[in-house]
């Protein structure tokens, strides 16, 4: 009985203790600024402190966020990159996988949390909410270990996020004046040169 108790204690001490849970940091910032018709998005750093987590989805939900109810953004469309184009598994300190995973946003490589396609008709306003990730928890890497057991599913990890739609700057009417004057002078010179050539040809 004593030996079994000692084995149980040793197993508990060897197993990673569940700490504060994983954290999500958006890169380069949770707050983005974009113009109508443009494409922007978030990179990420995810840090884990126990077991192995696998990201299963990402969404951009407007405040107030009451997931799984998700109010979709008004000024554009969000596309999930992190689970649709990648398979992100994050381990724990001392585990077989790194306890931190990080990606910058790249629309060509489809890396990062996801992309936000700003509507061409978007007004000067702001979508404020959260990037919400769902993830499953395993006792081993589910991609490399056949004996990996899923401990929890559809847990939620989030970070504050916003997209500010800025006005497209247009040159003021006065800024066209110098160019118009230059083009006018050039046109007069060309016309004068042609007239001179015509007079010269008539005189021959």
Question: What would your notes on this structure say?
Answer:
The longest helix is centred in the C-terminal third of the chain and has 27 residues, at 177-203. The strands form two sheets. Strands 1, 3, 5, 7 and 8 form a five-stranded antiparallel sheet that branches. A five-stranded mixed sheet has the order 2-10-9-4-6, with no helix packed on it. It has two domains: 16-165, Immunoglobulin-like, CATH 2.60.40.10; 173-203. The protein contains two helices and ten strands, in the order αββββββββββα. The chain starts with a helix and ends with a helix. 20% of the residues lie in helices and 36% in strands. It is of the alpha+beta class and 204 residues long. It has helices spanning 2-14, 177-203, and strands at residues 23-27, 31-34, 39-47, 52-62, 76-80, 89-90, 100-103, 114-118, 126-138, 150-165.
Question: How would you summarize what this structure contains?
Answer:
It contains two helices and ten strands. It has 204 residues and is an alpha+beta fold.
Task: Describe this protein with a few key phrases.
single chain; 204 residues; alpha+beta; Immunoglobulin-like; 2 domains; five-stranded antiparallel beta sheet; five-stranded mixed beta sheet; 2 helices; 10 strands; 36% strand; disordered N terminus
